[in-house]
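Retry 2 of 3 after timeout on previous attempt. Resubmitting structure tokens to design endpoint.
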């Protein structure tokens, strides 16, 4: 059953972003415990979920390996390997699509986000779900993730084009003990504490001004161009204008999976960086402002894209006047009382339908085909944020109703402390043990050397500041957040004034 679930999830969600995945072949590979996919191409609409004015010009995933020891989940690690991921992104030109095509792309994007949000919703506590959650916990306890050679690049258009992106040499995440020694957790009933060590090598963010467009005539040209710009220990890259210079980091994570409340934080995250250098030039700052303005203008016009004409304003000015009138009419209708009344009616209908869908296994009554069609119609009509809000309201009602059912069942059994059932007893125990002073999350950052520098138009230093032995400690408690920081030395230097007595 679990193998079927894993293969279905991979096919359903990985298939949304990767072209040419065959369900049958994928299912057989997962069942055997070894899945290896190579030379995959990402779908052109992979970035539509971001709702940003960007589109994928070329995207490749060269290697994806998944090793699942089905017969030894508690004693052997599940290994995930991802290598050579290259994405070339550019500005989106929505004029290439008709109004109907835009609506369909938006609907497909909305469906993907809604499906992902459904995974996080807590459904009924059936024995099947309990078995699945326990098995997934075993996999998570020993999972090992390796990522190598990642380059995500945005290339602007125009005569004075610029490019920015993220490069990563390697990342390794594995299970360790408290002393950061790699181990395999062997526990039949799960573990109360999990320790994960994440090693990061040569992560960098760059912004190249006046950067020509890369060659996109062939797949090999794109891969070679993006691959040679990844900074590694053996092959450093000198011609990149880095905002965040390549750095190595180590993250150690302690996760408390025990359901009982105790003094140990649920999550303790320690990030250590030896050398962290940030630099900005005047040209980079100006181009960043231009890009943010581009994003802002797109977000303002996003609700009216379906009215936008495909022709240029020079060739069809009447169509652009019509676009203006339709946009103003749509904007005014949204604020009208009739639209407000319609929104309330749709909200109540959707909340009721989603509540019925989530309670179907409890009351043994499924939605009719007509109700399913109405649910889909409402999801198409309303914005994504509205649908997520409707679902949250419905899920709150579902949880309250399930608690009432559990209480009614518990009262029939006995009137003692444990007559409230395991769930209520656990809640009572947690309330007794909970304390406002208990730390829920502990976040810590240590940097041996953190520097910041400003550059002029010729990339010469204007100002440089350096912090040594920097530490930031953040504790999150119930209703409060406390932050402590310490710095051993701070150095600030004026690089413009010559022979300055106060550099």
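Retry 2 succeeded. Sequence:
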């Amino acid at each position: 059953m679990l193998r079927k679930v894993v293969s279905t999830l991979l096919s359903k969600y990985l298939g949304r972003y990767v072209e040419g995945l065959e369900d049958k072949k994928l299912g057989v590979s997962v069942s055997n415990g070894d899945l290896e996919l190579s030379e995959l191409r990402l779908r052109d609409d992979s970035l539509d979920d971001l709702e940003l004015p960007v589109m994928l010009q070329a995207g490749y995933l060269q290697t994806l390996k998944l090793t699942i020891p089905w017969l030894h989940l508690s004693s052997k690690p599940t290994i995930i390997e991802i290598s050579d991921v290259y994405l070339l992104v550019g500005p989106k030109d929505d004029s290439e699509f008709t109004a109907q095509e835009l609506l369909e792309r938006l609907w497909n994007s909305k469906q993907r986000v809604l499906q992902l949000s459904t995974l996080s919703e807590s459904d009924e506590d059936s024995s099947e779900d309990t078995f699945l959650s326990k098995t997934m916990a075993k996999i998570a306890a020993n999972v090992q993730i390796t990522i190598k050679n990642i380059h995500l690049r945005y290339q602007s258009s125009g005569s004075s084009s610029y490019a920015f992106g993220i490069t990563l040499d390697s990342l390794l995440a594995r299970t360790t003990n408290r002393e950061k020694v790699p181990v395999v957790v062997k526990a039949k009933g799960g573990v109360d504490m999990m320790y994960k060590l994440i090693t990061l090598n040569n992560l960098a963010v760059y912004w190249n001004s006046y950067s020509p467009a890369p060659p996109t005539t062939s797949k090999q040209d794109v891969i070679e161009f993006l691959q040679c710009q990844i900074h590694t220990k053996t092959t450093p890259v000198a011609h990149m204008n880095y905002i965040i210079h390549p750095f190595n980091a180590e993250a150690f994570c302690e996760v408390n999976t025990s359901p009982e409340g105790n003094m140990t934080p649920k999550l303790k995250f320690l990030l250590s960086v030896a050398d962290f250098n940030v630099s900005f030039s005047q040209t980079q700052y100006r181009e960043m402002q231009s890009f943010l303005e581009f994003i802002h203008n797109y977000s303002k016009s996003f609700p009216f894209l379906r009215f936008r004409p495909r022709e240029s304003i020079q060739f069809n000015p009447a169509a652009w006047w019509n676009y203006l009138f339709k946009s103003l009419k749509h904007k005014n209708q949204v604020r009208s009382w009739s639209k407000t009344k319609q929104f309330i009616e749709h909200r109540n209908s959707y909340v009721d339908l989603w509540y019925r869908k989530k309670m179907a296994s409890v009351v043994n009554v499924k939605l009719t085909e007509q109700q399913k069609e109405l649910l889909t119609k409402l999801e198409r009509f309303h914005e994504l944020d509205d649908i997520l809000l409707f679902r949250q309201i419905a899920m709150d009602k579902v949880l309250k109703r399930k608690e009432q059912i559990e209480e009614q069942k518990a009262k029939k059994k006995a009137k003692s402390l444990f007559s409230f059932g395991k769930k209520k007893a656990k809640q009572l125990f947690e309330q007794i043990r909970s304390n406002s002073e208990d730390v829920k999350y502990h976040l810590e950052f240590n940097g041996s050397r953190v520097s910041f520098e400003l550059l002029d138009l010729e990339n010469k230093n204007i100002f440089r500041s350096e912090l040594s032995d920097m530490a930031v400690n953040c504790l999150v408690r119930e209703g409060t957040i406390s932050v402590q920081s310490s710095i051993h030395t701070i150095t600030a230097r004026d690089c413009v004034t010559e022979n300055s007595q106060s550099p």
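Attempt log closed. The first strand starts at residue 34 and ends at 41.
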